Amino acid sequence: MEYVKLSGFRLDGRRPTEMRHIHAEVGAVANADGSASFEMGNTKVIAAVYGPKEVENKGQQIGNKALVRCEYSMANFSTGDRARRPKGDRRSTELSLVIRQTMEACILTHLMPRSQIDIYVQVLQADGGTRSACINAATLALADAGIPMCDLVTSCAAGYLNSTPLLDLNYLEDSAGGPDVTVGLLSKLDKVTLLQMDAKLPLDIFENVMQLAIEGCKAIANLIRQVLLENTKKLEYLRGT
Amino acid sequence: MLQSKSFMKMTRHGRAVKVVREHYLRDDIYCGVQYCKVCDTKDARLGSSESTILVVDTNVILHQIDLLENPAMDDVVVLDVVMEEVKNKNLSVYNRLKALCTSSQRKFFIFYNEYHKDTYVKQMVGETSNDRNDRAIRVATQWYQNHLAGSSRVLLITNDRENKRKAIEEGLSAETVESYVKSLGQPGLLDLVVVSSSEDVNVMEVEETRPSKRKAIYSEHKPMSEITHGLHRGIYHQGKLRVNRYNPFEAYVGSESIGDEIIIYGRSNMNRAFDGDIVAVELLPQDQWHDVKKLSIEDEGKDEEEGVHLVPGSADDAPRGTVPSAVPSETMNSTSCRPSGKVIGIIKRNWQSYCGSLEPMSMPAGDGGVAYALFISKDRRIPKIRIQTRQLGNLLNKRIIVAVDSWDCLSRYPSGHYVRTIGNIGDKKTEDEVILIENDINSRPFSMQVLACLPPLPWNLSPEDLMNPNRVDLRHVRVFSVDPPGCTDIDDALHCTSLSNGNFEVGVHIADVTNFVHPETPLDKEASQRGTSVYLVDRRIDMLPKPLTEDICSLRSDVERLAFSVIWEITPQAEITSTRYTKSVIKSCAALSYVEAQARMDDSRLMDPLTTDLRNLNSLAKIMRQRRIERGALTLASAEVKFQIDTETHDPLDIGIYQIREANQMIEEFMLAANISVAEKILKHFPLCSLLRRHPSPTKDMLEPLLRITASIGLDLDVSSSKALADSLDHAVGEDPYFNKLIRILATRCMTQAVYFCSGDLSPQEFHHYGLAAPLYTHFTSPIRRYADVIVHRLLAAALGISKLPPVFLDRNQLTSVSDNLNYRHRNAQMASRASVELNTVIYFRKRPTDTEARIVKIRANGFIVFVPKFGIEGPVYLVKRGEKSDWLVDEANQRVTKAGSGVNYRVLQAVKIHMEVVEHQPNRPKLELTLI
Ligand SMILES: [Zn+2]
C-alpha cells in the first residue's frame, strides 16, 4: 500500500516530517496534586500525579529515595470496537513499566527519601503513538505537581514506510507493520532515556529514523515548556502579583 | 518541522466500526503553473501563458491513457482525487500515469486538491461518492480558474455528460475528449481517442458501419455475483489463462481447485479471454473432452500456418500439446484426456498494447475518411483486433502499436485503437524495435538519476581500495581472461599457479560490480528492473550504463580492476582441497579470445608461462568435466547460430553454427565450479534468503515426444534418472554420424529451463539442478550482464562479513518477486535473441536462395517438420498444397507418412534435400519457405 504519495504527502495530508496537531493542558483532574491532558491528533491521554506522600505499604519504602509507581490503563471507549479491556494485561503492564522507568530517570528521587509518588495515565482515545503521548502527559502532570525533575522528558515516535522516514505515525500508518521507533529524550541534557523498536531495520536507516524522532521530542519539549510557562503566568495573575 | 499553525482539522466518519481519521488541510499546496505570481513555483511544470490548462476526470485517464501519453497532450492537471480513483480501478494505468507525472519531459502536475483548504469537499448527505468526486473535480477546476484569473484558459475534459452540463452551469469551460482533440487540428491524434459505446459520443456514426442485424458470436459472460457464487460452490474454477504460443486456439487454465490444468480448445470456448486474464471456467462434460478438441482443430486449425523458426532450445520454446494432425483416436495419448472447459467470465483483464501490423486491405473509396482495419499482432496468442483509423494509407505498411478497449459478444474480434507507429515493415531498425517491445525490454537510454550514481570518470584504482583490509592485492598474479572475440563486457578472468606441493592454485575473478552498484540507488533499481543485458544479433542492450559495462567493471587487460575472487587449491587429480572467497585487485595480463586460447594450447612450440597456465587449467577442466558427466550431467546439444554482419549495412553476410572449442568448455567448467562453490557458501550463511538456480527434472510426459521418435526407430531410452538418460544418450549411435547430435537436440527441447528461486520458498530436495547434476547452483560469474549475480555478490559479501545484507533480503516476499522478475526478464531476453536471429536469417536468405540437407523431426498429415543443421532452423515442408485434399497417410507408431497407392514414404530422422527461399505472398510480409527437392 502507498502510505506516502508521489510528492510526499501522507494519507492524512501531512508531510513526512510533520507531527500531528498537538494540544496540551495542565490541570485536568482537580483533586490530584498535578494533572494534565495531552492530545496528538486523535490520540488523547490524561495523566494524574499524587505525591510526594507517605509510603502506603511500609515494606516498599526506600531509605534514600522516593518510590515511583505508575499505572497505565486504556478506556474501553478509546478505540473503535469498544472492547472490554481486562486490567493488568501484558501490554498495560509493559507500558506501566516503560512509563515508570522513563519518569524515574528524570525525577530527582533522592530529594524525597521515604516518600511515594503515584502516576496514573489513562488513554481516552487511541490513534497511534499512545506510548509517547502517555509519557508527555506524565511529564506535564509531574511538572504541575511541582515534583523536582532534572529536565523535561518528552517522547515521540517515528517510523519507516515506503522507504521514507515518517514522524509521529497515526494508527493507520502504525498498523502497516513497518518499524516504529519510540524515543524518550531529556531535551536540555540531550540524553535519550527510552528507545524502543520491534522490527528489523538497517543501521543507517535506523539512525535517520531515530534522529527524526529526536527532532520530534525536541519540538514537543518546546511546546510543553510553553504550556507550563503560560500556566505559571496564569497562576501569577490569579495570585495578583 | 511543523507546528500545525496554518491547519484546520477535520474528521471523517463512516463505516460500521466508527473510524475517525484526521485530515489536515493546508495552505502550502501550489498550483504548479510556472508564471504564477502567488505560488511557490519551485516544482511548477505547467505551461506558458498562452496555453490551456487541462483538468481531466478519472474516466478520461482510465480510457484515454494512450492519448495522454502522446506529447501533444500537455499542461494537464491531475487531481489527487483522480489519482486515487485510477489507483483503485486499474493499477497498470495508474503506474503509467505516475510515470507521466514524474517525467521531466512532460507537463503533468498532480494537484493535491484533497489537502488544499479551498478545494476540499465534504461528502453531503445522500450524495454518492462518485458524485462527490465529480464535484471535487469541478471545485478544483473552479479554483484553478479563479486562481489563474484569466491569464490562461482552464478546461475540464470529461466524457460524462452530466458532469459536463453541471460544469458549464457553474461557469466553467468543459469539453469532451473528442471535441478537444478535434480542436487541436491534428488528425493523427484522433486515432488515439477511444470511442467507447458507453460514452454516447458519436455512437450513431459507429453503429452505421456495422451490419444492422447481428447475432451473438460468443456467449454472454456471467455476472460477477453468479461467478463468485459458482466459485464458492466449486462449479466454476478460477485461474490465469495462458494461450499456447504456437497454437492460439489452445489455452490452459491452471486451477488450484481441481489441482490440474484445464484445457480450453477453440476461440468460442475461450470466450473473448486474452492471454494472462484471470478467468472463471466451467468444466465441459467428460464425454465431450475429445470431441471439442477435434472440432476446434477442424474448425479453426487450418486458418493459421506455422512459419520457419529457430530450433527450440528447451521445452519452453517448443510448441506445446499436439499440433493439428489426423491422429487416430485409439492412439490418443494421455494429454487429451485432461479436463477441458469453457470460459464463462473474466475476473481480471490483462489487456495491454500489442505490436504488429494491419491486415493488408484495399483502400476504401473516399480516402481520408474513417476506415476500419484488422490489426494482426506479432504475438500469435493475441486475436486480430479491429481498429478505426483516419490514416489507413499511412499505416498499411507500418509496424504499429494497438491497444484493446473492449470486446462484446456480438463481435468476432475485439475493438481497439491505434497508439503509435514504430516504422516501416521490414526495415531492420523497426523490426529490432518490435522485438524489444514484444519482449517488454527497456532499451531507453539511462536516466540522469541513474547516470548520477556512476563514479566520476576516468575511474582509477584509489589508495583507499588498496588500504581496505577486505581487499587482497593480487596485481602480481598472472591473471587472464578468455571470451568470445570482440567481447567488451568482460566479467570473468582466471589464474592458475603451480604450488610447491604439486597442487594448483586456481582463481576465478569476477568483476566487482557491487562495489559500484549500491543497493536501493536509482542505478540499482534500474538494473534490477532490467534484470539482464539483452543480446540481439548486432546490438546489445545493457543492464548497466556503458561506463560500467565496458570500462570500470570490465576486466580488460593491462588495467587495474576490482574483482570478487573465488580461489581454490586443486590437486592434479582436480580435487578441490580448499576454497577461499575474497574481494581483490587484479591486473589482467591478457584478454584472449577462445580462438587465440585454443591456438596457444594447440601450438606445441609455445612454452611461455601463460600457455602453460592455459594447458594446466585445461587438463584440470577435462577431469572435472568427465567427473561431472559421470555424475549424470547432461551434455545437451543446441544449435547456436552465428552471423557475420556487414559493418556498413548491418545486413548479415554469412551464417553458420557457432563452433564450440575445448577452450570454451574449459572456461565453462571453472565458471560452473565457482558458481557451485558460491552457492554452498551463501546457502550455509543464509538458508532462507539465498538466491539459487534450479533445473527441475523433466517428467515422463515432457519426454514423451522424444520417446515416441526413438521407439519408432527401435531405440530404447532409459529416462528414469538424469544419469540413466545421459548414459542412454551416449549409447545412441547409428550409422549416421549426425545421429547422436540429433537425438541430443531432440532431448534438449524436451527439458524446461532452469529458474531462479529464493531458498526459503522451496525444500532442499527441490534445489537440484538436473542438467548439471548438481545439488546446488547459482549465478555468480556475470554480474555485469545479469542482476541475479549482483544479488549473489551481495549475499557472498555479507556471508564474509564485508558488508551488511541490504533490507530486501529481510523480506522474503520481496525477494521472491525479485527472482520472479529475473526469470521473466531472462526468458524475454532469450526470446528476443531468438527473434533477432530469426529476423536476420530471413534477411540473409532474401538474396540467397539455398539448397541444403535437412532432417525430418516430426511427421504431420500434410507433410513434415524438418531441422536444418547448417543454419539451426526448423520449419514445415508441405507435401500437399493448402486447401487440397491430402492423399498421404500418417503412420503414428512408425512415425512415417506414406502416399496412398504408392511406395513413396518419409519417416522421422530421415535426411532430405530441401530448397530454402524467401517469398512474399503478401506485399511486405516476407517469409522463409522450405520446399522438397
Ligand atoms: Zn498559483
From TrEMBL, chain A:
Q: Keyword annotations for this protein?
A: Cytoplasm, Exosome
Query: Listed GO cellular component terms?
Result: cytoplasmic exosome (RNase complex); nuclear exosome (RNase complex); nucleolus
Q: Which domain of life is it from?
A: Eukaryota
CDD domains this protein is in?
A: RNase_PH_RRP41 (cd11370)
Task: Give residue ranges for domain Exoribonuclease phosphorolytic.
Answer: 18-148, 151-216
Classification via SUPFAM superfamilies? Ribonuclease PH domain 2-like (SSF55666), Ribosomal protein S5 domain 2-like (SSF54211)
* InterPro entries found in the cross-reference section: ExoRNase_PH_dom1, ExoRNase_PH_dom2, ExoRNase_PH_dom2_sf, PNPase/RNase_PH_dom_sf, Ribosomal_Su5_D2-typ_SF, RNase_PH
GO molecular function, one example? RNA binding
Q: Where in the cell is it found?
A: Cytoplasm; Nucleus, Nucleolus
Pfam families, per the entry? RNase_PH, RNase_PH_C
- Report the record's Gene Ontology biological process terms: nuclear mRNA surveillance; poly(A)-dependent snoRNA 3'-end processing; rRNA catabolic process; U4 snRNA 3'-end processing
Q: What is its main location?
A: cytoplasm
Tell me yes or no: is Disulfide bond among this UniProt entry's keywords: no
The answer, when asked if Cytoplasm is one of the entry's keywords, is yes
Family in the record: Belongs to the RNase PH family.
| UniProt protein name | Uncharacterized protein
Q: Which organism is it from?
A: Spirodela intermedia (Intermediate duckweed)
Q: What is the lineage of its organism?
A: Eukaryota, Viridiplantae, Streptophyta, Embryophyta, Tracheophyta
TrEMBL record, chain B:
- Pinpoint the PIN domain residues: 52-165
Gene Ontology MF: a single term: RNA binding
Protein location: Nucleus
Alphabetical keyword list = Exonuclease, Exosome, Hydrolase, Magnesium, Nuclease, Nucleus, RNA-binding, rRNA processing
Q: Which GO terms describe its biological process?
A: nuclear mRNA surveillance of mRNA 3'-end processing; rRNA catabolic process; rRNA processing
Q: Where is this region: Disordered?
A: 298-336
Under Pfam families, the record lists: OB_Dis3, PIN_4, RNB, Rrp44_CSD1, Rrp44_S1
Q: Which CDD domains match?
A: PIN_Rrp44-like
Q: Which GO terms describe its cellular component?
A: cytoplasmic exosome (RNase complex); nuclear exosome (RNase complex)
Name any cofactors this protein relies on: Mg(2+)
- Positions of the RNB domain: 471-802
Q: Which SMART domains match?
A: PINc (SM00670), RNB (SM00955)
The record's section on InterPro entries has: Dis3_CSD2, NA-bd_OB-fold, PIN-like_dom_sf, PIN_dom, RNase_II/R, RNase_II/R_CS, RNR_Ribonuclease, Rrp44_CSD1
According to its UniProt record, which protein family does this protein belong to?
A: Belongs to the RNR ribonuclease family.
What name is this protein filed under? Answer: Uncharacterized protein
Q: Which organism is it from?
A: Spirodela intermedia
